[in-house]
Task: structure prediction
Amino acid sequence: MTGNVIDVRNLSVDAIAKRGERTPIVQDISFSVAPGKVVALIGESGSGKTTISLACLGYARPGCAFRGGEILLDGSDVLQLDLVGRQQIRGVDISYVAQSAAASFNSALSINRQVTEIPQIRNLMSRDGATRKAAALYGELDLPSPETIGQRYPHQVSGGQLQRLMAAMAMMCSPKLLILDEPTTALDVTTQIEVLQAFKNLVRENQTSAIYVSHDLAVVAQIADEILVLKDGRMVEYGPTETIITVPRQGYTRQLIAAAHVMPTEVTQRASRGAGAPLLSVNGVLAGYGRQRDVPALRDVSLDVRAAETVGVIGESGSGKSTLGRVVSGLMTPWKGEILLRGQPLAASLKQRTRDELREIQIVFQMADVALNPRHVVAKILGRPLAFYFGADRHAIESRVGELLELVGLDPAFARRFPRELSGGQKQRVNLARALAADPQLIICDEITSALDTVVAEAILDLLVSLQDRLNVAYIFISHDISTIARIADRVAVMRDGEVVEAGPTAEVLRPPHHDYTDLLVRSVPDLKVGWLEAVMEHRRRTGQQAAGN
Amino acid sequence: MVEHAATALREFRRDLTPTATLCLLILSLILLAAILAPFLAPYREGEILTTGSFVSPGEGLLLGSDYLGRDLFSRLFYGLRLTVAVSFMIAILAFLVGCSLGFLAAVLGGRFDMLISRLVDALIAFPAIMLALIVLTALGPSIPVLVVTIAFIDSTRVFRVARALGVDIVVQDYIEAATVRGERFGWLMWHEILPNALVPLAAEFGIRFTYAILFISALSFLGLGVQPPQADLGVLIRENMQGLLYGTFSPIYPALCIAAITVSINLLVDWYLRRNDASSPEDLQ
Result:
């Protein structure tokens, strides 16, 4: 007996291809979690962090199999248990909080019914007992009206609340080990720190051990006692949090720290670009959803974009920033207001715009993998805008596709590949190349780096800047990530509830003193410092700031 | 493109299971028999060879004669030919109509989708065989009427599948990317939606084809399908039913043909769908 809650020793997991070949995806992982401690697994996508955390439950995803090693839970090996044995420990001794609570809850059942299910089917608690325990946990997690929130259905609570409700579900049987798999990644920054604080209190008060999986070093620094850095399924560095973030030994860890989304200490204004008359003007636009026009998403929004400049639009989910992109591109017809391109009014709806007007405004979507038709090769994806806008012939298309691929830093041989044969970063480059194929004046970038790993996202941002220098294209860069905006934008518009609350040159907006809401946003970006979370929560309590819509 | 095709063929052969191979073999033989019927059949379709009804199999008559003294073996070839051809036409027509309307409903949405979907619901609520009987009685049974009627009924089923696939695909970002480029409906349908719906649609095609076979066989058996002296497999069963009283197996052979085609197609479709979802070799077994 080591006294640890869980000991993972030399764990290896293979992926099994359709033909039966095995490729290792996780190799030789060893770590242990002491009672009441939190160990963070950190790495990019594909680093094996979720595979390892699922292995602790004795579970390998379809297409994966354990090859070796042991996972000792209180001294007995989880991997040696049969299915029934594993079922006995899951949810009782070890429990799991998934990344997207919204996707994990059954929308047809009440929250309480799902939260209290495990203790009930195990006959560990009576229905009333389980409901009382759940209500107590809701209170501990700072959820509003803990007695009654469980009677609601998943769609009746916010994303941040749902994530905490899922943590309550995981804590129902007072597990020895709690596994949190990217629990705050899908949340807004202002919500994220509240959820993080709730998790931290929960773990501390119940003396539960936890494994916290994340790609975000700054978030992990707030909650973990130890950090295990992973790359390509192997251990890079393992040690106490303080040591890892202050004196990293490995180059890869330093790379991760450099790419972490923290607020730059000094916001520098990029050299002045985009002088003269605005390329695009959005004037008093009112737009929204609903048949009776009863759900406004944009209320009287005005915005100017000059040629060859980058306008950053920041806001949390529901702030209307994506709707703004859709209105400008013509995907959505505004109820009121006008959009001018070089002083000429643009038709509100897509169908009434001329082909040339369509060509000049291009859009790049957030999710690179669903923005490319999976059944088209890259040559067709990039060739179609050339044929559509310029009527190019086959020969011209072929050579232009090669040029475009080189422009975004890809080999021209990629033209023959299907999207599934590309990595996330490569897909986003193809997406960008498709927009560039139209030779546009303005590209709307809708959260184009949010789904990418930090190191890959850095490279895409660098590419955007170099393309702007060469092609003089303007960007509307929509993002929830204020640190990214601070890096790339010439001017910034901060949006909240469909209104622009503050706008101006980047340095002016993001340097103190701020508008109240900008201040809240800036302060909510986690810093790579142990103890930052406590300091922020303290500041919030003092000033009485509250996150919106939560 | 050529290399892609070569790889695809290699993977296809690798994934073939014994059952799938057998089904493929049976279907190829049946298709070959249908196409080459005039060359393979020993006698002409309506040629009366003996005066006796239900003569036992023997020299010259491999499966014996039918009630009029025609060679059952030869008639089986022609029956197969007619059944396969008519069913194929029905399935093709049903898909052209069903897919076009289904994708259209998915892309346009709103009132058009509502209208056409409810119309299809109403048609589906009506028993298919009843609908067919009414139309065929009113217009008279001829092969064009038969094909159009059954294709019309089948297209409602295809519509549902195509619309369901369409609405899933239409919300994808790549469709939005094409829309914002300014693409028209035709491009969206043929280049963006269809390639992504091809696998389930191909499977559905197989199933609709078997249903078409069963449906015309049933109608022919009732006397409202293919009219004598032409015969499809359903007519052959009806004509030779009496043979059972005389102790011959004559109606069993066309019945076996129908069973062989439908079961083979079903197994093949199952294999095809499983192959496309399969992530490991065990999933294929």
Remarks:
- The radius of gyration of chain B is 22 Å.
